[in-house]
Specification:
The complex is a heterodimer of chains A (about 500) and B (about 325). Chain A is built from 20 helices and two strands. Chain A is mainly α. In chain A, helix 1 crosses helix 16 and helix 3 packs antiparallel against helix 4. The chains are: A mainly alpha (about 500), B alpha/beta (about 325). At the A-B interface, helix 2, helix 3, helix 14 and helix 19 of A face helix 1, helix 2, strand 2, helix 3 and strand 6 of B. Chain A: Keywords: Membrane, Transmembrane, Transmembrane helix.
């Protein structure tokens, strides 16, 4: 404990230096903007700005603090376009659209933005506190997570997402299957054989998650907007000046806490990040607290859940990076690269050899979270005004930003065709009354499930027993059963007296 | 204090913008990293960007062209940008292997011009610090008696350059590479996590990435797959060859250009690299990016590529990757 406190003291001394403080604020502000742009998420923000931070000749701790600010800011910013436009700003913000956008459509954009800022703050801060107290312990735990345990985690994720099966289970399952099929495209790691690439080199390595998100979600939403406008069904939204209230926070406090825990633990595992964390958090929360069937229609708990989780995951991903030198996500891989550029070896030795960097970075995360809350709350009114921009200006603007965003990071015209094609496909699915979230989740979870299952079986030499050989796997299977059974049991117990109420209604 | 630092930052920024002492006059030089930012190709381009800075008239830009493990870029420079005089594209031995195994389509290594190397990396056989294997001989004995008795993992798919290191190990023991119990991870980071967590027993990595892990003492390198003993910080680690196994895996990292570039334009780039190779700054840049010195440009590199491709196709067909 003493070591942690003296470490934090060192860290805050570095982070509170006026120059570094300014960098945290700048990083957070630009990060928020980067995150809010559809298509450019934390990975690209950090990757694009890394050479600039390096080129400016800052001392290593300052450069890292700037980059971490951008990382955190982008995780915050991703929610803005999710809520206002139903277009996820980055991959971790997909689930935020589900309840965030309905809230904005109900005239509560300001309330949704401010509540999600608070949830993000709580999730982010939770992660940093746990990290500063238990980082080495957590990292040791995270690496013992074997491929078999990841399989169990994916089973748990699928179980929690069973709650997404809405009015039409067939369409939900079909959607998930489409996602699973998209995930199989590309070179199969276990055999080296190309699957469903049809000789197109551009998809040899599979389709990038970001492309699927921007195409299926973003482009499809824009096409729907254009369609509504052409048919005159588009209704303009009034300016709203709603804001989060204390009662909202009281109502969502347990949601935020639960989802921060889920997000953080999924975040520290190498190989799973903010997108898996927010999906599992949303699914679990819907299973646990959606007793009136309001999730998906603008329930504030459905908004707070993924936001707390994705920010907690962003913090969690730093744990294995800082303590073991193993990146837990794409973005932390780039931060790791940044450390190496400055000749700093991350890992257990870093805390002893370069405490000003390790602890300075951690302290800057505390400050970054506060800064983001302070930057975001007053701007809520300004962001909410975006909704009053006439649709015939807004739609093309978002389309242009999304195209530029994708082209900047990928530089391949093929991907622009791909997002357009996926957008048309998504629009078509929406016309057929499919929900798109299961497609995305099938895509992200399916790839992880398949790869880890096959890794586990390679390790055991084909013995399926490996899947149930460890207490971590068994615990997760237990939780999976619980998350399916508990809501049904609760619904039975709370079933109103008068007969004729729907039987076994989990949703 | 703060003002001074901003001042330094500005001064550095301005010195970057100021025209450097020029040798090769290349308009808007560009290095294409055929991958997402942050990976090995990004680092390869950064070596050129920093290392060539004093030898080019204009600052070099790094751009990214991910897609199909480098196939997108290779196709682009064989179809549309064949005579682009201002761009070089990063490659590695992994790219050569993809050319050999036909993953890059119909184009061969003779369709582009090989400009220069950024440096080299070497394969490393790594175990956890508490592993029963103290040297390569112990591991090779177990692999020889039963290839499936040891769980081996790396960051690339079956048939990738990471897998090839394992295939070479098995081949050296007289076994068939397809009998190897190989676990493919999504990048070296995940594979190292699996090694530390005990899911796999042996990790086939590169020495460059091990620098940051050497000091912490959590892992042990059983053998380096380089032709000769490396310098610090690897001076204490024996090579596989010293331990009596004919295992060498050199990972070239460098750059190519479109095949229809004029000799004059090609020469400008080769000259810039050769000028850079002669300076101590180049060695510094190389070291900072975790690369070991291996400086070949122009005809020398073309010859090395021809050798390398011949060797790779031999190994790949023995390993069953090509018929």
């Amino acid at each position: 404990m003493d070591a942690v406190l003296s470490g934090l003291a060192t860290g805050f001394a570095v982070a509170l230096d006026p120059f570094n403080l300014m960098l945290v604020l700048l990083g957070c502000f630009f990060g928020t903007l980067i995150g809010a742009l559809p298509g450019i998420g934390p990975i690209n923000g950090v990757a694009i700005l890394l050479p600039i931070a390096y080129g400016l000749g800052f001392p290593p701790e300052s450069a890292l603090i700037l980059l971490a600010g951008i990382y955190y800011g982008a995780e915050y910013g991703g929610r803005i376009s999710s809520i206002l436009l139903n277009v996820p700003g980055d991959a971790g913000a997909v689930m935020t659209t589900l309840d965030g956008n309905p809230m904005a459509r109900n005239g509560e954009a300001g309330r949704a933005l401010s509540l999600s800022a608070v949830a993000s703050f709580a999730g982010g801060t939770f992660a940093v506190v746990l990290m500063s107290l238990f980082a080495p312990l957590l990292a040791t735990f995270a690496v013992t997570f074997s491929p078999a345990d990841y399989v169990a985690l994916m089973v748990f994720a699928f179980a929690s997402l069973a709650s997404l099966v809405g009015k039409n289970p067939t369409k939900t399952l079909l959607g998930a299957v489409i996602g699973l099929m998209l995930a199989t495209i590309g070179i199969d790691a276990n055999t080296g054989v190309a699957r469903y690439t049809f000789g197109i080199p551009d998809i040899l390595a599979g389709i990038d998650f970001l492309i699927v998100v921007v195409g299926l979600f973003g482009m499809a939403e824009l096409l729907t907007l254009v369609e509504q406008q052409v048919s005159g069904k588009l209704r303009t939204l009034p300016v709203d000046s709603s804001f989060v209230r204390m009662t909202d926070l009281a109502r969502t406090k347990w949601t935020i806490l639960r989802c921060s825990v889920i997000g953080f633990f999924i975040g520290i595992l190498p190989g799973t990040g903010a997108s898996v964390a927010s999906a599992v958090a949303y699914g679990t929360e819907k299973r646990i607290s959606d007793t009136e069937g309001t999730f998906g229609k603008g329930d504030m708990r459905g908004l707070a859940a993924p936001e707390a989780a994705n920010n907690a995951a962003a913090g969690g991903a730093m744990v294995p990076m800082l303590t073991l030198g193993i990146p837990g996500s794409g973005t932390t891989a780039i931060l790791l690269g940044a450390l190496l550029m400055f000749n700093i070896q991350p890992g257990p030795m870093m805390f002893a050899q370069r405490p000003e960097i390790a602890w300075g970075l951690i302290a800057s995360m505390y400050l970054g979270n506060v800064a983001l809350l302070v930057i975001n709350l007053p701007l809520v009114g300004l962001f909410a005004r975006m909704l009053t921009i006439p649709q015939h200006y807004l739609t093309p603007l978002i389309a242009i930003l999304a195209f530029i965003g994708i082209y900047t990071i990928v530089g391949n015209p093929f991907d622009l065709l791909l997002i357009t094609g996926l957008g048309l496909f998504g629009w078509f699915l929406r016309k057929l009354d499919f929900s798109l979230a299961p497609v995305i989740l099938g895509f992200v979870l399916g790839g992880l499930f398949e790869n880890n299952l096959r890794r586990a079986l390679s390790i055991s030499g084909g013995d399926w027993g490996i899947l149930v050989a460890d207490w971590k796997s068994l615990t997760l299977y237990g939780l999976a059963v619980l998350v399916v059974v508990l809501p049904i049991w609760l619904a039975r117990r709370n079933r109103p007296r008068p007969e004729g109420a729907p039987v076994g209604a989990g949703n | 204090m703060t003002l001074a630092r901003i001042g330094t930052a500005l001064a550095v920024a301005m010195s970057v913008a100021a025209p450097a002492l020029a040798q090769s006059d290349i308009r808007t030089p560009e290095c294409v990293a055929p991958a997402n930012p942050g990976g090995g190709f990004d680092l390869t381009c950064r070596v050129a960007q920093k290392g060539l800075e004093p030898h080019l008239t204009a600052p070099m830009q790094v751009t990214f062209m991910p897609g199909g493990i480098g196939a997108v870029a290779y196709n682009m420079f064989n179809t549309t940008r064949t005579d682009d005089a201002s761009a070089i594209v990063a490659f590695s031995t992994g790219s050569l292997l993809n050319i050999v195994t036909g993953k890059y389509g119909a184009f061969t290594e003779q369709d582009v011009r090989w400009v220069a190397t950024a440096g080299a990396d070497f394969g490393a056989v790594v175990v956890r610090a508490d592993s029963e294997y103290q040297d390569l001989a112990g591991l090779m004995a177990d692999l020889g008696s039963d290839p499936a008795s040891v769980v081996v993992g790396a960051g690339g798919s079956v048939g990738s350059q990471d897998w090839m290191k394992g295939a070479l190990l098995i081949r050296e023991t007289g076994g068939a590479p397809m009998d190897m119990r190989y676990v493919a991870f999504d990048g070296g980071g995940d594979a190292i996590a699996a090694l530390l967590g005990g899911s796999i027993e042996v990790y086939l990595g590169d020495v460059g990435e091990m620098v940051s892990h050497l000091e912490s003492g959590q892992m042990r390198i059983l053998g380096v797959m380089s032709p000769e003993r490396l310098d610090e910080p690897f001076a204490e680690i024996p090579t596989a060859i010293e331990q009596g196994f004919d295992l060498e895996w050199t990972i070239l990292r460098g750059f190519y250009m479109g095949g229809e570039t004029s000799d004059a334009d090609y020469a400008k780039w080769v000259d810039a690299f050769e000028a850079a190779y002669a300076t101590p700054e180049w060695a510094e840049v190389q070291k900072a990016q975790g690369l070991l010195p291996l400086n070949l440009a122009g005809a020398e590199l073309e010859a090395a590529i021809a050798d390398s491709v011949a060797r790779l196709s031999g190994v790949a067909s023995e390993a069953g990757l090509i018929n």
